[in-house]
Amino acid sequence: MRLKVLGAYGASDAEHNLTGYLIDDWLAVDAGTLTSKLSLAQQARIQAVFITHSHADHIRDLPHLIHNRFSQNTPPLTVIAAKDVMELLYEHVFNGDVWPDFANYTSPVTGKPVVVYKTLAQGKRTVFGDASLTAIAVDHGIPASGVIIELNGQSITFTGDTGPTEEIWKRTNKANNIVAVITEASFPNDQGQLATDSGHLSPEMFGAELKKITVDAPMYASHRKIPFERDIESQIKNLRDRRARVLLEKNYTL
Ligand SMILES: [Zn+2]
Ligand SMILES: [Zn+2]
To answer: Chain-wide mean pLDDT for the chain?
Structure first.
């Protein structure tokens, strides 16, 4: 499995990007950074994007990814999310005010809609192309679901933004051949209260989450807040869990 990390931060500036991941060039997880780092040809290869939750830093590029489909000779983009997350996207984003609901428009190139929506039931494994996806609710103060993706005999867990959580770790521990876990550490340890109040993790809390995971695979902390990225990195190293590392904006082969 190839994982292209387009954005690994919980904030953005000229050198740091919002959450966006691409697996094997065709399956994306979150859309904070997709159009802004991919050519139109690369965007056209994306068949589906799983959205963990509706916060702006995870959907910033989604309206533009859909809009760019109008000029591309490619099947509709499938937006995948848990039911409660999708309801928030319908209500607050694709509502005709912030952005049109492009599922109602037909591409002049393909004669088909440019986007289709696929809602997932919590905890139920759903096949999409060569992959299967299982959405699992996490703890972030609003409807939010991580996902376990299985592809070609490998599995990877993405929690998206979350505070301390349980169910997705139980499912990760039972999953087939986990090759990586992508979770978060947003704030440094001295801002642990802010992390708790906002449904995020500090490195210390990230370390406590790792103790719930029995799998021996790399565990990546994403979504660092930019001013604290070095502090968070050294605090992750100090956990002395050899699985623990920070997620970087680069291509991984898992
Ligand atoms: Zn976020
Ligand atoms: Zn969030």
So the answer is: 97
